[in-house]
Design brief:
Length: 1408
Amino acid sequence: MSSTETNESSPETTDPLFAHGRPDVVTSDETTDDHDDSEIGHVALLGRSKEAKGKELADNRDSEKVDGGERRLHTRKKQKWVTRFRNVAVRKKERKIRIKNRKGLKTYWERFVNFLLVLADRYVPFYNRVDPNGSREAVANDIKANKKFKGNAISTTKYGPITFLPKNLFEQFKRLANVWFLIVAVIQLIPNVSPLNPASSIVPLVFVLAVTAIKEAVEDVKRRISDRNVNSQKVDTLTGGDWKRARWKNVRVGQIVRVKRNEMLPADLLILNTSDPEAICYIETANLDGETNLKARQALDITAESLTNEEALSNWRATLKFQNPNPELYVFKGKLKIEGSERAIPLNLDQTCWRGCTLRNTDWMYGMVIYAGMESKIMKNARAAPSKRSSLEKSMNGALLTIFIFALCVDFIGGLINGILTSTVFFDRHWYLQLRDIQSSAAVTGLIAFASWLILLNVIIPISVYVYLEIVKLVMAYWISQDIEMYDAETDHPAKANTSNLAEQLGQIEYIFSDKTGTLTCNQMEFMCCSIAGKSYGVDIDGDSESEEELLEGEGEGDNPPKNKDPYIYKDPELANDMANDEVEMFFKTLALCHTVIIEGGSPDEVKEEKKRKWYKKVFNRKKAEVSSESEEEEVPPEPIEDEEAEYSEINGPKPSAYQASSPDEAALVLAAQKLGFEFYARDQESLSIRVKGEEEVWEFLNVLEFSSERGRMSVVLRDPKGQVKLLCKGADSKIFPLLADGQEELIATTKKHLHGFAVEGLRTLCIGSKDLSNEEYDDWSKRYYEASILIDGREKAVAKVAEEVECDLILLGATAIEDKLQLGVPDAISTLLRAGIKMWVLTGDKMETAINIGFSCSLLNSSMRRMTFSSSPSADVAEEDVIDSPERAADVLEAYALNFPEMAHSKWAQDADEAFLDKKLQTLKEELDKSDDDDDESKRKYAIVIDGMSLKQYLPDSGKMDALSARFLELAMRCKVVICCRVSPLQKALVVRLVRKGIKATALSIGDGANDVPMIQEGDVGVGISGKEGRQAVMAADYAIGQFRFLVPLLLVHGHWSYRRMATLLLYSFYKNIIFAMVNFWFGPFSGFSAQTLFESWAVSVYNIFFTGLPIVMVACFDQINSRQRLLEYPEIYMRGIKGKDFSRRLFWCWQLLGLYQSIVILYFGVAAYWHTITDPHGHGSSLYMMGLSIFTSVILVANVKIILITHKWTIWNHLAVYGSLLLWFLWIIIYQFIPSNTLIKPNFLYWITFPAMSSGAWWFNPLLAVATCIVPDLAFTYYRRTYFPAGYHIVQELGKADRRQRRRQKGKQMLRRAFKRLRDGEAPADSDHDTIPSSPSPRPHTGFAFSQDDGQSDILYAKGLLPTPQQKLEQSSGGVSTASRRKSGSMAQDAAWDSSDEVTSSSSSE
């Protein structure tokens, strides 16, 4: 068959679908319709003669040539139509086939991306693609197998040598002002467009960018040096069977290292052996989590017994399977399989220690590296703090945007007018400009003028304000850290600013969210009382006369505080009589055994030497006191010591142990058991040893079921000396009571009654329970516990589930009550903050009764307030039907309490209201409540909310969006004066802060002292950490750190108010001085045809903000004080100005700008009027444009500096130098600048030899003086009118301060006259000048005295009963009625007298 016939007979030639290479199936109708006549003709040729076929084919080809174009077009149309209507299922099938064919094939792009990922994984420090939920395997002593893991070098730098410039510029150009100046600088490079030297815009931009870049570079270099020092530290590594010193950065995963005493761990290690016989080591984790107490870790028995020397360590082979790197500090799951052993050994946190910890009380430790470098726990937690910006900075961005729009409008007006004038009017009137020779149209001319105006008025944006802000914020942070009044002498902890970006935000705090334990209280736990077998011991709830007398004994003063007294429980005769009872004995044995406390101390020889040293020191001090008392002939009772021999015998005999515990509560319980004769004195991996009334007992340690916030309890499983397996458990009452066995209803009811009484007294409570287990029960349970403990994924849930199986049917032994003493000055501090208009919420994990009692003790609550209680369980304040157990009940209880407020009762919101509607309603409500606060109506806001965590869960939005129920609850809370949330989790604390911040756009401050407060601290606009007994994790995560809660008052009311006022003044003035400078050129537009002709020399424009007007405002922002520290503390109501934003608002901003516009008009037209007629100098030279511009520039600088003088309230030597130095610098500039000829940088110099001729004219000097006098008239008139007829609060306080100073001067004058007359009367010689001068007040000293004193915090028990005056009342009685705020800084009798006189002036002024 020929090729032609083959083509004709194949289906591909007849079906157009096949012609496109698509084997699709079509219907017969479609196929028939798709054939054209030529195709039919080709088919008809079959079977004919060869000649006929050839002839007809030739004819067909000729016809195809004629109509070929039409047929091809027709064919394409048919093909497109068929393709468009193809079967959808067929297309999907084809797509699947193509995907299947391509599966497994990598394109060049995919290969390139994978290559980049491999490079990033190997070389980029912070890059991490490891799944934290997965697992990995490491082999001991096998570097080749562990080569896939990262090295131990760390990098905390932000930039690299190559990435610094692009990354830093990218960060800086996020600022809108920098982008503006960049655009202007680019436009300025266009020829014949810029009226100024291009350098006038480029130089300020480069200066600002360079200053910020240098600051970032310096900080990054410090980080790089720190990294290098850390990576260069050395540690012993096992290499070739011997210990060799190696740098940290060279340590690898799987390598074995040796850490010595007091050395820091180079990486995360698995403990193999230690110098301790029990393979225990003690580590300090202060660098990791801030906890200062030691923690015990212990190696496995199998590794401790076998790995005792270098040879054994070198030959040891094992495979460790464990979690991938993750930031969890308190979780580790893994299993160890040693070569030659079939069984895997489970691993947990007890066998590990992390990088950054320090080895204490242990000579050495062997460890295997498991996480290294950037994969270590400490580096996984080294993430940057959340980015926070102050409200003032956000307002500044809004002001910048409005100024941008204003500047563009002015530029458009200038360009439009110039285009109109150059096209019409100027042609004939100003023929000398030769405008008819311009070939451009009016539109092009106007566009060029617009660009010229854009360049000329670019100075309207104060780019230098960013530099000012950085400088001032650093200075404000320095003032906070140097404040001696916020120095805590007890803990040696000064105030510290961890960030410099939020100083002004401290002056606008509306809500304070505070933790209770360790923040309002001291976190110093003391065992006060207990309930055992239904009987209460310790503090008598009805009031014990003897204990009250002990509490009311005289308080120490100065450096001699009263000696601490033991609580009454240690002297309770009933407890002493019942100590032999089995229930009491088992109760205190449980306290001595159920814990994770470790015994503090080093080796036995060190402990013995320490005991000797303490004994000799004690005897020496006693002998010294006896000799001192004999010499002074005073009867000083010596320190009571029963028997010196018995005391010395403690050196070789048993002595009470010192404990290290993870929490003060646990240490207090163990210490209480020790004082009552049940001493825990030893612990090892297999046993716990206690002394019961002098007799030693060893209990076999089996298991510990650790505490977690979800479980709310901890348990230990032990075998007593008789062989009985016991489970001992302690935890919250809400967690223990459901686990108790039946038949204890009466005991439970009595214990609950005692617990309620303890909680009312402000004590922290725990319940104690036990259970006996048979050996069979324990063996069966321990197998399940082992299986759960070796799981890699889901271990916590599995262990908790197994623990619940054994923690049931408990026998209630009793309950404990611990007191947490209130911090010094807390009641007075809270009262002052409430007077300042700040609302306070307390968020605590304690019981509701405890939280309420603390609220009364710290003056947060009072008897006149009505409490609205939201509870998930019935109590004295909540009936059974008011318990919140569902969202419906939560809504009903909320609406019932809303009836207390008529406004809420008539404004119930729909449940399906959208978030925008709720936001609008809450903002309106906030404005209404702010106005009502100004009315001083004491009947309002006299309600308090007390809510527990389970109930609070119903009101917190789950998805983060505000719903109707959450908004309704927030509305109710806003109408209350105090809100106390108890039994809340760390996450709920953060959600509460977020609810208020996002709901009503309020500025919130969070303050706490523990790790559980970190989420709340980071969620707040400002986070404050207190250095307490729960570690320093809160301090490290906070923006500011202080030593005591009372220091929050000067931090907010003094530094916060000063910072806010200074920053507001800085921003307002920066925009004000620039709008004067820029708009002078615009008002000159009518005289120049709006051609953007400048009056000023280009380089003078560039340095205007830096040299001539910058330094004075920086000094004001660093040193100005609108009111003194004492006045701000005495009148905290001044702080409300910051809350309401009265010092920086949109209205105030535009008032300053309108003043600048007015003054720019005055300056320009006074200057034009002065030079309206040609002025000639003595040599006959006429005036020029730049001579007039020089005079106008002088007026601008004088007006700007006079404004600084008017707004400065406190003058220092630095303010004087800045103002006068800026003026002097201007005159030196114009004098020196006139001698510089035109060159590359100064091209041309329009001031060349102009300054002296200009100064020779009287108009040049008279014009600035007249312009300044006219410009300040509105300022002076408004200030007089405002202070006279509508004074603000701070104006009145300023006048009181002036009256106070006059009164003190008069008193000092009278004292000097009395001394002089006395000397003359007695015939004394005139005194020397040194004696005539009035002695100055001593300089402030560190705060060592206390506003009030109390013994161990026990007086707090009687505050709620009204049996003891509050600390504030004690202080007022001792100081003669003078408030604490007014006496806070008094350091001498002269200052006290001055403040007494100020109070008299204040009272007289108020009566008038």
